[in-house]
Amino acid sequence: MAIAKKDNLYNLIKSLTKNEKKYLRDFLKTQKENKAYLQLFNKLDQQSNHQKQEAKTAFDSKAKQLPVIRSYLTHLIQKILQNYHRESSDFDIIQNSFLEITHLLKKELFDLAEFQINKNIEMCRQGNFLHQLLQALEIKKSFLIQKFGPLSDHTKKETLELIEEQNKLLEKIYNLHEYQTLQATFYDQFHQSAGLNQVIYTNLNKNPLLIDEKSAQTLQARLLQADLNFRLHLYKDKNFQAADQALQNGIRLLELSPSTIRQSPELYFALLNQKLQLLLQIKKPTELAQTLYLIRRAPLEFSIDIKKPYLRRYIMEAYSLELSLYHQLGENKKALDLIKSIEAEYHDLNSPSLRQWRAVMDFEIAKFYFEIEEDNLALHKAKKILAGEYSKRESEIYLRSLFLIIQIALKQRNLLLLKQTTSELKKFFKTTKKASHLENHLLAFLEMYPQHISYTRRHGRIISRLNKIKTAANKKTPADLADFLIWLDQFVQLQLHQEKTL
């Protein structure tokens, strides 16, 4: 669901790190002629939920100016962040350098410009920034013409060399484009429910771009090649060994280029998390432990700041997979220790996307507690999800949490909790998501269950409702809902048997 426009400034502020906030506050404090920006910044930063009216009340007489202040503050924060991060990566340094070089050439400060251009070109080459290198070489050509003139021998000689390098670059960019097209075709045609079209699969499987490793001319192309081979083997061949080998090739390629990992650590974490998912599926605990070690080692080995929001998502995903591993192996002590580590990191997951990941993690933890018979802890976690500001945007997690609370209410014979949760489920289907035919049958069952479970002569109605639910379920039923329905059937059948024997 799209974020409402009115929340943009609030979400922007909540996404900032502690250091970014300090840098922004220090700058805003210098704007003594207008303290309103700092006042609004602090007010929104203090809110745990966005309360628009609260900000209006705080501004009192200036409330009418608030829309203008909000708009300018949004623009100002982005401008300040651009300055704060101007040297946070080689990519940012290169991009900002283009503007600096343009100003130096306008002032005809050729020595300074030449030094900056050569430095830029070298950084682009080392970092495999193909498009930026193409642009840097073009700037070098302009510099030669400006300094030496278009007809000088020096300009002609160097320009020819630059054009030759640009032509080779264009070949590499086209090669990369071919792999990107293959990947787009794969994602467009592939559907897990129906599988990959046989003709498309055959064409991809015989494509020399995928068969021959030497066909990929750049690191980016080789990574796409490895990714495509991984997905083809995993989803079509079901050849898990070959899929694992393709993943390992991608991981090895990145580890041979530490600078690429430092510049784009999300690529490395994504591959490692994919490997975790695969190993979890084929049940290789030893290799899983080794991969988890690589994830934990990566920040120190490659100087990666994992507190950046876009990277924390990968760390949270790794935690989720590790929790699943310990549960599968029955190592509950390790799982409980891991939960403590996860919860210790919750306090600074403030950006909207990370709050949603926190909801996912809370549900995984709640589900784990339920499965080890810690129902009260599971209930506490599930209720926390329902109370969270992210819950309405995360409708799938919200719905799964409602079903989990229903399971707990049934197990504990807490009919009041069951009634309250069923009412919330009914409201959810009215306001957020239209109920399917199956979900309507389930809702009807939950509404009548408390009145019929204690009366043997009414057990037939419960069985009838259960049968309607089973009939409405099909292959397209989501896995989590299907698991819930299996649990519900087994639980109710047991309860009915116990009632009859009393």
List keywords for this structure.
25 helices, 78% helix, mainly alpha, disordered N terminus, 502 residues
| Ends apart, CA distance between termini | 50 Å
Overall pLDDT metric: 84
- Structural class label: mainly alpha
Instruction: Kindly state the number of beta strands.
Output: 0
What is the radius of gyration computed over CA atoms, rounded to a whole number of angstroms?
A: 29 Å
Q: Work out the strand percent.
A: under 5%
| Major β-sheet profile | none
Percentage of residues assigned to helices? over 70%
Q: Residue ranges: pLDDT <50 for 5 or more in a row?
A: 1-5
Order of helices and strands: HHHHHHHHHHHHHHHHHHHHHHHHH
Count up the helices: 25
What is the overall shape? globular
Could you characterize what this model shows?
The protein has 502 residues and is an all-alpha fold. Among the domains are: 5-84, no CATH class; 90-150, no CATH class; 153-256, no CATH class; 435-502. The chain is 78% helix and 0% strand. The protein is built from 25 helices and no strands.
Give a brief rundown of this model.
The protein has 502 residues and is mainly α. The protein is built from 25 helices and no strands. Among the domains are: 80 residues, no CATH class; 61 residues, no CATH class; 104 residues, no CATH class; 68 residues.
